[in-house]
Design brief:
Length: 598
């Protein structure tokens, strides 16, 4: 059977997963109601976080499909997948056109010499403009330096939600057959007699885990055949060679994995038996063979410290609370999360390097659901030095807002060292394009939601390291810090809510040093949120005023990472997320300030 290997790539929410689901349903690989986003976090957030493998069978051809994430923070998932496939379906929203992540994934694809098929998706939208979107994609290909062959790309117009596609806009749309036919027509077969006759060479691009089989490697077979029971050699990233044995092997049938005895060049398989296999290594038949090129991943842009939770409320919720358990979990994460880097050299904390706040937030959310308790420090941008100059990461920011809101956006981003490179009115909205340091973006998203009343769209992509821009002016709010331990009282909070926004409500447990809200004046304020009303046996007209509490703004993981100050920790447990000062008592904080001023 012939094999075709494709990845579906796009910006977040442009319809990759819906298109993959529709392909699976049409070819009989899945039932109605099926979705590729199987992870709990993916279902809750409505985005793809982890790349997934599936296959469909059409006209005696097996098409291996990899569904990839669209958010910039998970771009490492896309980078490793692109090396293992032969072409990509570049999905672009017919209304929005190319967005930051579209540029990122397309650039990587073109650099690898792939020839994408462009799918203009969501043509059923009322404001869809498919022909304009096609022209914008062509301009993007030109900007990214595509060669003549790549510029001659094929286009399909589709609606992934309705499961229809057509080559021309005037054609009648029935199902996804035009897209499937185009895949067979334009994408070369991954298997050939020549490649099958060579000695085995395969490379893992994803890892999985099974309670009975241990670590599983998802591999693309480049040359030769692989059989169950084969003795193989594994060449590491640093060219060291070790032996292994294929205990079991699976191929993909739909989203399911089916056990197989043998697989040939071009196919994607899952192998078990090599306990220490890593992404990017080479599995080969003999030790003299040359290793395949290593999978290169872009550098992380932010760092923060992970520490054991030592707050007064530590150990209440979590099952895993010790330093060794935290280290073990982070080491396990490194095996599958290739965009992450961790420095284990310190004994009291672990420095974690990631792609962005969402990348770190998803890791933390998974850990708390597994029963871990920990604290993290404020995310900091990674500063590099080259030729004696300080460099910091910059991002391209694309914002879609209504015209009346554009003024406040431009003003705030300019203060954060953002430089506007483009302003384009589009159907009552305006698209603003900025280039700005990642430092300026950290902590901006909560402000953006408030300024646009939740109606704006903000998307970013890292565009590399550029010279350091110096101090960045951000809106400074102080912290409202509890002086006591106990339960908050509505009476006390009623008096405090005039000073700023509260993060807690009535009868919430607090401890000394816990941050319970912010102060709009910018300085920290020590308060007693547990104080009740003094009672007496005297009655006076008008003194018993009704207490009206503004609903609190609860601290979530992402909000906490955005709003925390440098001298604070975010405490994360299975049931709670709290902000706290690194030094809990006021005396300790004063001593620390004196030390720093000296």
């Amino acid at each position: 059977m012939e094999v075709r290997n494709i990845a579906i790539i796009a910006h977040v929410d442009h319809g990759k997963t819906a298109l993959t689901d529709a392909l699976m349903k049409q070819t009989g690989m899945a039932e109605e109601g099926f979705t590729m986003d199987t992870n709990d976090l993916e279902k809750e957030r409505g985005i793809t976080i982890y790349s997934k493998n599936a296959s469909v069978f059409y006209k005696d051809t097996k098409i291996n499909i990899v569904d990839t994430p669209g958010h910039a923070d998970f771009s490492s998932e896309v980078e490793r997948v692109l090396r293992s496939i032969d072409s990509v379906l570049l999905v672009v929203d017919a209304q929005e056109g190319p967005m930051p992540q579209t540029k990122f994934v397309l650039k990587k694809s073109l650099e690898l010499g792939l020839k994408p098929i462009v799918v203009i998706n969501k043509i059923d939208k009322p404001a869809a403009r498919p022909e304009e979107a096609r022209d914008m994609v062509f301009e993007l290909f030109l900007d990214l330096g595509a060669d003549d062959e790549q510029l001659d790309f094929s286009v399909v117009y589709a609606s992934g939600r309705d499961g229809v596609a057509k080559r021309n806009l005037k054609d009648e749309a029935k199902d996804l057959t035009p897209l499937l036919d185009l895949i067979l027509e334009k994408i070369p077969s991954a298997s050939s007699e020549e490649s099958t006759s060579k000695p085995l060479r395969a490379q893992p691009f994803n890892l999985a885990y099974d309670n009975f089989l241990g670590r599983l490697a998802v591999c693309r077979i480049y040359e030769g055949t692989i059989k169950k029971g084969d003795e193989v050699y594994v060449k590491g990233v640093k060219e060291e060679t070790r032996k292994g044995k294929i205990v079991k092997m699976f191929t993909f049938y739909g989203l399911d994995r089916r056990e197989t005895e043998e697989a040939g060049a071009g196919d994607v398989v899952m192998v078990a038996g090599i306990a220490d296999i890593f992404i990017g290594e080479t599995i080969c038949a003999n030790p003299e063979q040359e290793a395949l090129p290593v999978i290169e991943i872009d550098e992380p842009t932010i760092s923060l410290n992970f520490l054991v939770n030592n707050s007064p409320f530590s150990g209440r919720d979590g099952k895993f609370v010790t330093n060794s358990q935290l280290r073990e979990r982070l080491e396990k994460e490194l095996e599958v999360n290739v965009g992450l880097k961790i420095d284990f050299s310190a004994t009291d904390h672990y420095k974690v390097y990631g792609r962005g706040e969402l990348h770190i937030a998803v890791l933390l959310e998974n850990m708390r659901r597994e029963g871990y308790e920990l604290q993290v420090s404020q995310p900091q941008v990674i500063i590099k030095e080259e030729n004696g100059k300080k460099l910091e990461p910059f991002e391209e920011v694309i914002i879609d807002v209504s015209e009346e809101m554009s003024g406040i956006i431009i003003e705030k981003l300019s203060k954060r060292k953002g430089i506007m490179t483009e302003m384009r009115p589009e159907q009552g909205h305006v698209r603003l394009v900025f280039e700005m340091p990642t430092r300026g973006l950290l902590g901006y998203k909560p402000d953006f939601v408030i300024d646009t009343r939740g109606e704006g769209l903000l998307a970013t992509r890292v565009i590399g390291f550029r010279p350091h821009v110096g101090e960045i002016e951000k809106r400074s709010v102080g912290s409202m810090v509890s002086m006591v331990t106990g339960k908050s009282s509505g009476f006390s909070l009623w008096g405090l809510q005039e000073r700023g926004s509260l993060y807690i409500g009535h009868a919430d447990e607090v401890y000394e040093g816990m941050v319970i809200g912010n102060v709009s004046k910018g300085n920290d304020l020590n308060v007693n949120p547990t104080k009740g009303k003094e009672l007496s046996n005297m009655r006076a007209s008008g003194s018993d005023e009704a207490i009206k509490l503004t609903p609190p703004l609860p601290v979530t993981l992402e909000r906490g990472l955005s709003i925390m100050n440098e001298d604070e920790y975010l405490e994360i447990t299975p049931n709670s997320v709290r902000l706290r000062k690194q030094y809990l008592s006021e005396i300790e904080r004063t001593r620390q300030k004196r030390k720093q001023s000296k």
